[in-house]
Input
Amino acid sequence: MTGRICGTGSAVPKLRVTNDDLSKIMDTSDEWIKSRTGIEARHLATEETTTSLAIEASRLALENAGVEAEELDLIIAATVSSDHIIPTLSCEVQSALGAVNATAFDIGAACSGFLFALSTVQAYMMSGQCKKALILGAEVLSKIMDWNDRSTCVLFGDGAGAAVISAEDTGIMSVVHGSDGAKGMVLACDNRPVNNPYKKTTADLSYVSMNGQEVYKFAVRTVPKCIEQALEQAGVTADEISCFILHQANRRIIEAVAKRLKQPIEKFPMNLMECGNISAASVPILLDNVNRHGMIEKEEKIVLAGFGAGLTWGAAVLTW
Ligand code: UT7
Output
């Protein structure tokens, strides 16, 4: 028994902000952002929240799967930008959907979060603990960006993506993942500092900081290796894969992975032009875009891959 994705959904905020829009409020340009990353625009939350986007994406995924909320026995939300420390995002989604029979918890593996959630669901399904699950990635990263730091804030966006997974004989063929905490500080954001009657703090709020070049080097080295391991475990060659759905951080990273795997770039759909990098939501939003455009046929094999803060990485081979 394994897990098979049987429905997807996604949601992005209404406000679309182009590179030119940003160049009016900071010292940047469409030319710099587009040539370095491929990003042309991103959606930023104004009325929306991480929770509202997560709920919308989840409802659409259930509808797409033809599954009722009561049928879910597991909900896993991947996020680094939930609205509350408690209750967790997954519990809020459970409540909004009326998924009264589900156990719900969050995982925080940043841009690899959706892959880690997928792997967890597969383990639950293989051990017979779960029959229908909802996994989602949801982020409002704009609230943890330093809008005075042009080297990070132009790269990220807000949104949510979700998938319903059903226990079946075929579906997830392999999942591999890993972490390197020793390199954690290359992409970081502090939570609240210690603050109690015995230790007062006056520290300002922390925002995302990134050593872009270190993350870039890590990504181009690790992602192809991780995909190759997932392919080997699944007993499938890269040529047999119809679609590689990678975390949407940077067009140049995706092109480097395609080259290393000796695969045409056409097999690597992208939405980073319109969405930027949405951390845990990138992979499921792109998966939903591809699914709804009918770009994957039933029984075709696809690869999902994520990488980012932690450092963390993960890749999966799936039969659609
Ligand atoms: O999901 C997490 C995954 N994250 C990633 O995958 C990010 C990976 N890294 C990258 O994508 C790239 O490293 C970046 C796009 C972040 C940066 O590209 P780069 O080619 O490594 O640029 P750089 O950091 O070397 O910056 C070059 C110059 C600097 O100016 P000087 O010092 O050379 O004069 C920056 O100050 O570009 C300047 N710069 C900007 N200029 C205009 C930095 N940000 C901007 C900006 N607009 N927004």
About this structure: Residues 28, 32-33, 36-37, 111, 150-151, 154, 187, 212-213, 215-216, 219, 249-250, 253, 277, 279, 308 surround oxa(dethia)-CoA (CB under 6 Å). The first strand starts at residue 2 and ends at 11.
